[in-house]
Amino acid sequence: MQLVLGVAACVLGVAVIARAYRPRSKSGLPLPPSPPNWRLMGHFLPPRNSFLTVAEWINEYGPVITIRAGTEKVVIIGRHKAAVEIMEKQGRVLADRPPMNAGQMITGGLAIGFTGVGDKFRRMRRAIHTHLQPKAAEAYQPMQMSFAKNTVLNVLDDPSDFQNHVISYAMTTILTVAYGKDTPTSATDPEVRAIRQYMSVFRTVLSPGAYWVDTIPWLKYLPWYGRNLKREFESSRKIFVSQMNRLKQQSQSNVDAGPSFGRYVLENERLIGLSESEAHFLPGTFFAAGGDSSTAAICTVLMAAACFPEEQAKVQAELDEVVGRHRAPTFADQQSLPLLDAFISEALRWRTLSPNGFPHRTTQDVIWENYCIPAGTTVLGSNWAISRDPEVYPDPDVFKPQRWMNDQGGLRDDLTFFVYGYGRRICPALHLANRSVWINSALLFWAFQLTLDPTKPLDDVGFIHVAMPHVSCPIVFTPRVPDAELRRIMRIYPEVDTE
Predict the structure, then answer these.
(1) Beta strand 360-361 with 378-381: parallel, antiparallel or unpaired?
(2) Residue ranges per domain, the chain?
(3) pTM
(4) Closest Cα partner for 88 from 348, 342, 368?
(5) Least buried of 18, 200, 353, 499, by fewest C-beta within 10 Å?
(6) Cβ count near 362 (within 10 Å)
(7) Residue set of the binding site
(8) What digits encode the pLDDT tens for the residues 383-397?
(9) Residue list, annotated binding site for heme
(10) In CATH terms, is domain 24-491 a member of 1.10.630.10?
(11) Nearest of 255, 339, 281 to residue 128 by alpha carbon
């Protein structure tokens, strides 16, 4: 009985302290409206597909809502206009991250994604942007075409395993950019398996309420708590350190490993101003997150093509007109293929990546319309709800690539989506990722007709969870070019873009 009373007293004490330190505003304006909740527990979100519940709340209670997770209040933005006005136009005061203890445990506090705003974040961000700005990312186009050619040949040889083929492309590309690795990478390589396992747990960390330590911070001091998080951190750290040590050895042996982000970090370690552990983890985070995101995006586009054959046919008609079937598309064709770009944009709106968004934290009060989001509040942009804003995307549940086109047949420049994040926290590798999605989509749409196998089940939200290669997505790839001719074209496919 004494134990029960003691625990109850502790819980009550924590609640009182949390209430005392809860973010408050001096403006006198209220927080955005809140759906009904359980008094003690706050709002209940299901462990899987919680974005659907959030979208229902947004539809009922308005474009911006407040929910409660334990004692913490979280503001969720679910409409396009509000996202622009809050997350973009006031991005300077939303660049911070809230304390995420589970995230700190799985990254050792070394990942830029969980680093709060400040000097350390600015140094990390500057290093990544310097190496991955648009002009720098453009230099990787020949490599991306070469690796995407392998995807086509792998699908031709074994179409049923297309998810692993896309994983192989993404991981080979990311390892080359991150560490200058010049050997092909397979989805079954031990380091790829380990990193994908790490990312699986990492994404669970981002799910609301997945780990009690985010509600009860002192749990992180218990040696038995979060063993899987600590284990995944150690596993990933060993991989990242070994990759950087390989680069160091190549440099000491005067071996030219080619340009890479890891090499840039090593050569500019003092200028960047990171500790050795931070320098090891920065390219590693890029390697881990970039591979999974690119894979999910490419597979989402392929799934959309199989689900909507009429829209696929329009893109293929454009490819036939611009490229023909006697050569394969390259980056030089991109400006002449607006329908393909529109299809990709619509696919990533239809089944958006990171549907719950990544948490931000306000460093100042944010005033929006007649509401105030106090400084110190966690803010989420619900990508799923925003992507279904009926004022911006009419008939949001209908797959319509034409919504991205203007009256002149080109791409609209007034329609945006936040698949890569917001403001100063936007994904620094977005230019590289966009090119990967585009060249793989262009080549696979040109080479194959994609259809669904009606005898097998389809999980059309599976790629949102990035749990590949186990997503139930039975795509049948039928060559549009005779087998021998396709292999011949791929054999001479230019590894250097020609205009």
Answers:
(1) antiparallel
(2) 24-491
(3) 0.90
(4) 368
(5) 499
(6) 23
(7) 427
(8) 999 999 999 999 999
(9) 427
(10) yes
(11) 281
